[in-house]
Amino acid sequence: MKIRSILMALATLIAGSPAFAADTIRVGHLNTFTGPFGVLGIEMKRGLELAQQQLGNKLGGVPMEIYETDEQSKPDIAVQAVTKMIEKDKVQIITGLLNSAITLAVTKPAIDAGLTVISANSGPSIYAGEGCNANFFATAFQNDAFDEAAGEYMTNVGIKRLFLAGADYQAGYDHLNGAKRTYKGQVLREIFTPTNQLDFSAEMAQIRSDKPDALFIFYPGGLGAAFIKQWSQAGLNKTTKLVTGIYAADDLSFKALGDSALGMEVVGNWYPGLDNPENKKFVAAFKEKFGRNPTMMSAGMYDAMMLIDAAVREVGGKVEDRAAFTKALHKANYKSVKGAFKFNVNNYPIQDYQMSKVVKGADGNFTYELQGVLKEHKDSYYEKCKLTW
Q1: Domain architecture of the chain: domains with CATH
Q2: Mean pLDDT for the chain overall
Q3: How buried is 119 (Cβ within 10 angstroms: 0-12 exposed, 13-18 middle, 19+ buried)?
């Protein structure tokens, strides 16, 4: 009985002991570096590398180690990678997460193992409402929010007949649902195509037959470049507006798209020309390191690392104290490259979205002509989230 009492007392003491500051912050970077979405994952990695450089390879003053895996947009590979990160690498944070299907596959096992998950790009609806979790953060957007802004814009500018097309996975469903939620005109057709499809000739024939006023699409990476070029080559750019996200028309894709990009109307939560000190510093540093403007993908990953840095600093490096660390993350006590930014109750952003048209600037390079702003937009799911902070 005496030994049992001692063991119980020891267990109580350990359970009540304060978390000690880690000597290294171990971060798992899970992303896509190959396949149609690979160019986007590589761009996110550039944002991470720039953040590492500017932070002196530290988070909150504590040295960081990055453990990185190409999950190839395959959930089974992603789960294997996260298992290794948990069991062997002993990471405390998972970030990156370009693809919503990957985010959905790895978030629960990571959180169940005691990790904090910070998606720097994907924002699936499943974790925005009833499924919200104090240990999951989406720093870029809730998937639908881009499209809710675009749907409102298309209604306001008088688009009467709309054709919807997207990639056949969770983010595609979320993005198209977002547009339908706020668009008040007639949806002629909604289609989803395989994530490896690059020939859209059948879809172009359908668009020509339906004669919509506008297309709204969700095709990131190589899918977007293929669709947009074929839209232009088919002459549909002369009869049908194309509305999408900034991820489909940026410094990664402008060269490949050429003049096909002209006239596209895109919604974004960030643009290279945003006038705030943090963004100017980021854009200048990115140009110096990589020789061109950054994109939404690199900006989003850079921003997520700066958020993590601020939260680690606030808890004095004690990231194992999950309650304190997640509370510090939720406060978002840092300066975002996007300007005004804060988290809603569900750990998804409240932020501005801006519509723009792709044009050529005075220097002959592609740029954005702003069309309108949706201020401090909140996603459509947060009211179902029962978290309290």
Answers
A1: 21-143+274-351 (3.40.50.2300), 145-273+352-377 (3.40.50.2300)
A2: 92
A3: buried
